[in-house]
Amino acid sequence: VLCTINIDDCESNPCENGATCEDGVADYTCTCPAPILGGITWGGKNCSIKLSGCFDHNCQNNAVCIPVYEEEIHSYSCKCQPGYYGPDCSIPTTFSFSSSGYIIYELEVSNRSKWSTEEDAAHVAVRFRTTLPNMFLLYRGDEKSYLILELYNGLLHAIFNNSNTSSVLVIDEHKVDDGHWYKAEVTLNSYLALTLYHDGCNNGTCSYRERLGSAYDARLQESFTKVHIGGLPQDALLDNTRSKQNFTGCLEDLLIDSNIVLPEFTTDDQSYDLTLGCNKTDWCNSNPCHHGSQCIDRWINYKCDCARPYTGPTCLEEYTSWTFFLEDIPSFANFTITQHVGDSLNISAFIRTLKPDGLVLQISNSTLDYLSIYLKSGQINVKVLSTTLSFKEYFSNGKKHLINISIMKGVVKLNGVKFTEEIELLPSLSALAEDTVLVGGLPPGGDIEQWGGYFKGCLQDVRINGHRLEFSSFNSKDDDAYVVSASNVTRNCVSDDVCQSSPCKNNGTCTVTWNDFTCKCSVNFTGPTCEEPVWCQQRPCPLESTCKDFPGGYTCLVNATFKEESLVIFTSNISSEHHLASVSLDFRTRDTDAVLLEASKDLDYISIVIQNGQLLITLPSGNSVEGISFDSKTIISNGLWHRVEIMMKTSTDMAPQWTVSLDNGHNMALQGNTGSLSFLAEDTAITLAKNYTGCLGQVSIGGFYLPFADQLFSQQFIKKEQVSMELGCKGADVCGDGPCQHGGECQDLFNSFRCTCPAGWEGVHCELNIDDCKSSPCDHGFCYDLENDYWCNCSSGYTGKNCDINIDDCQHHHCLNGGSCLDGVNSYTCLCLASYTGAYCECEININDCEPNPCLNGGACQDLVNNYKCICNASFSGVRCEKSNAALAFPFPLLGVAVPVSCGILLLFIIVGIFMVLTARKRRQSEGTYSPSQQEVAGARLEMDSVLKVPPEERLI
After folding, report:
1. Where do transmembrane segments lie in this chain (predicted)?
2. What is the CATH number of the domain that holds 457?
3. Which of 117, 161, 794, 864 could anchor a disulfide with 166, C-beta 3.0 to 4.6 Å?
């Protein structure tokens, strides 16, 4: 026997209460289920013991109590929350600094002469919280040999250095300067390891490590016994850090080589400016920074990163604007660069102007102008040496714009948008000391016209590589990179007094609107300068028309009515300079085929017709046989007003694109090539309403109306001929002859009518009597149609308007002897009591009254007519044998009666017995002989069965 099989000690399921069993060698281990909050915790060898150590624990500060069961003794341990320490978690570990505080922690020198790779030589763990991106947390060592844990640019860094080697680790997945708590850990042996515990890390841990190399001497360094926490009193040590700043924020749970640092037990010579606990004000919660500026929490205060052009502690102030070329007086500002400002250029400013051309900024040296920024046709142009770039965005609209031009490594961008045209790579630019920056113009003698003249408008918050150009030497700072001299530059953004020249005519009122003006005209004048008369104010049009002003005149708009033989012809009185790029027409008709508008000249023509009740538009081209067309696909011959609009999308002479809109619906692009409508301005006859019955409303071509009312004005279409046209929209008097019969009401629907019929009539003329029986209203009968009514001839047994009511035949029933009546259809049925029968319950039935067994205590029931009789045994009496006779009282002694009666009965039995013996002897003597005489005397034997019950007698009623 080799004894190689391990017996499964878990086979007997020794672990209880859901515990997991793990087999061992001649043993097993039970892993008890994790405790549920507020539930039972199990322990012991088999997880069968209810642990009670936490029933009366002393764990403080929300610590978790863990019950313990050892050597049959119940106890507990406390798992502390972050920031607390001790057996009962009552000792706080949290402390804070405000930029100048620190703790100097001294460790005892270990007896180990060499740090093992398996056992940490130096270990630091801490939880921290801050909102500042640059500062160190711990410095362990001296000036030459040190281990640093710090924040730099919001990222966690670990730095190790000694005479043999150095190493830097950075955890760049997450910034840790957002004011939340983070835990960091640094370990130093043959490796340098840095760990950040964060929910965003993989499995909650971000960790980096680096081997220090063979040159690294792992001997214990005495300098590492001194640890500076939060601050360094010596600048030489601070220079070894990247952050160069002491810690501001909160620390807790600080472990140095597994030794916890308890702040409340530090002495005065160990610490400086230390505060127990962590009190943090959320400075940015109240949004103190205005105008969309960003609030930066600096732990002990806040700072506003103001959106341009705002400034001040809370961004309520605004940088001063400066006005150039005010009242057309030449102005400029001259700056001298005093120091080198970088190898690339970034120029930004707020600009506001209405002048489309002018020099904004120019940088030059002693030999040439190497950068010029100017406006041309309202667009920013950038000239770098001999190359000019033009950006398409329009800036000369009087609004304030931020321009940001960057030139880096030969690439030019405006407001972050790269110049996209193909150019040769520009050379790198660099503004050097003694170079000149000119803003808004050039000094006298300069060729300003090549740049479009002086810049006219306002500039604000002008910056070159982050340095602001201050146009007043009074506001210049000592560290500014520029020295200013300005000429005719005005503080604040000021407008010219453009109303000084009285531009508004005819008593119009002028109002300045920043380098521009508006005129409030009197009633009879209009236009930008109140020079155009308001013709419609004089009411020149007929009463039925509407007057509409247009530049240089007016038109009288009125609807017109046409009959089939009517038409109207217009010709143009419009200058050929006008670009006719649209046609619009309002119409109302019931015609299914008619001409709304047509015109032609040579190979060009336009046709808007109604065909089969649908709108058809044709626009052939002089260069194309096919042209283009549009079919509405919807019926428009319904007597309602419709509007069709045709518009040119582009104005190219070769192939303009056209769109059609019907009833202000979606614009449909017409596919194909066509010419323009310019031929309509060349004395072309334009015919309206040919073979058309209906109304036309506003008709316009290129924005010029074709007026139906008589008038004469230049720059419009003139009515050349009309036939039977009537002003106003009037349909035929379709209701005049009273087409609706039987009192129907006629409704005029424009050249059509609709009859609203009275009840009971239908049809176009209300000539048809509605069949009121069509819906089969009679449920049980035949329907006869009447005028707006019907009559039901009901079947037998039914009544009501619709023969839906069953007549109650029980109202006069003949049911006797208490019978109830059940109604039927034209009949009824009598429901009789149990003792009666017949159609009317007239016959009586004798029922078996003994059927329910009314007799008690074994009594026999005898049925009678409508009654019964109980025959009781000797012990009971009563109608139903319900009375017991044993309880009756006797008036004499029972013993005196019982003795004589018993003797009498005994004597009677003796006499009967003697008689039976004598009879038997006598019978034996006569056996074996036949005696006819005896048979005659005795008679033949006949047995008769007893009749138990006589059948009841039948009675005939």
Report:
1. 890-918
2. 2.60.120.200
3. 161
Question: 303: exposed, middle or buried (C-beta count within 10 Å: 0-12, 13-18, 19+)?
Answer: middle
Domain that holds residue 587: 539-727
**What average pLDDT does range 213-242 have in this prediction?**
79
954 pLDDT exceeds 50?
A: no
Phi, psi of 937, deg, nearest 5: -70, -50
Domain count within the chain: 7
Q: How far is CA 490 from CA 39, 401, 470, in A?
A: 80, 19, 13
- 62-96 per-position pLDDT tens digit: 999 989 988 889 999 999 999 999 999 999 999 99
Q: Kindly report the average pLDDT of the chain as a whole number.
A: 85
Which residue carries 């029968």 as its tokens? 837
Written as one string, the DSSP assignment of 782-851 is: EEEEETTEEEEEEPTTEESTTS-EE--GGGG----TTPEEEE-SS-EEEE--TTEESTTS-EE----TTT
Count the Cβ atoms, other than its own, within 10 Å of residue 150. Answer: 22
Q: What are phi and psi of 669, to 5 degrees?
A: -80, 130
* DSSP, res 322: E
pLDDT of residue 219: 54
Task: Indicate the residue among 251, 276, 301 that finishes a domain.
Answer: 276
At 280, list the tokens.
Answer: 């943090």
Residues 871 and 822 in one domain: no
Selection from 347, 346, 370 nearest residue 360 by Cα:
347
CA 551 vs CA 256, 533, 555, 702: distances in Å = 89, 9, 11, 14
Decide: helix, strand or coil at residue 326.
helix
**Do residue 186 and residue 212 come from a single domain?**
yes
Same domain, 159 and 185: yes
The residue-averaged pLDDT of 803-822 equals: 89
Q: Does residue 915 have a pLDDT over 50?
A: yes
User: What residues are paired with 384 via a beta bridge?
Assistant: 371, 387
Domain assignment present for residue 465? The answer is yes
Q: What is the pLDDT of residue 926?
A: 54
Least-confidence region, from 476-485, 621-630, 738-747: 476-485
- Tell me, what's the pLDDT at 934? 47
| pLDDT score at 217 | 59
Alpha-carbon gap, residue 236 to 146, rounded angstroms: 12
* Lowest mean pLDDT across 63-67, 211-215, 859-863: 211-215
Contact 882, 897 (CB under 8 A): no
DSSP-assigned beta bridge partners for residue 126: 184
938 lies in some domain: no
- Residues 578, 516 share a domain: no
At 236, give phi and psi (nearest 5°). -65, -40
Co-location of 397 and 291 in the same domain: no
307 and 436: one domain?
no
Provide the terminal-to-terminal Cα distance of the chain, rounded to the nearest Å: 112
Between the alpha carbon of residue 860 and those of residues 853, 870, 873, 883, 887, the distances in Å are 9, 6, 8, 15, 22
Last residue of a domain, one of 219, 249, 276: 276
**Is 924 part of a structural domain of the chain?**
no
Same domain, 194 and 305: no
**Residue 272 shares a structural domain with residue 179:** yes
Alpha-carbon distances of 869 from 162, 334, 850, 853, rounded to whole Å: 131, 144, 9, 11
**Contact by Cβ (8 Å): 362, 355:** no
CATH of the domain at 825: 2.10.25.10
Per-residue model confidence (pLDDT) at position 117 = 42
Q: Between vectors from CA 461 to CA 458 and to CA 466, what angle results, nearest 5°?
A: 145
> Which among 308, 277, 297 has a CA at the least distance from the CA of 400?
308
How many secondary structure helices (H) and strands (E) does the chain include?
Answer: 3, 79
How far does CA 452 lie from the centroid of its chain?
52
Q: What is the pLDDT of residue 717?
A: 85
Burial of 287 (0-12, 13-18, 19+ CB in 10 A): exposed
**Residue 468 pairs with which residues in a beta bridge?**
463
* DSSP state letter for 114: B
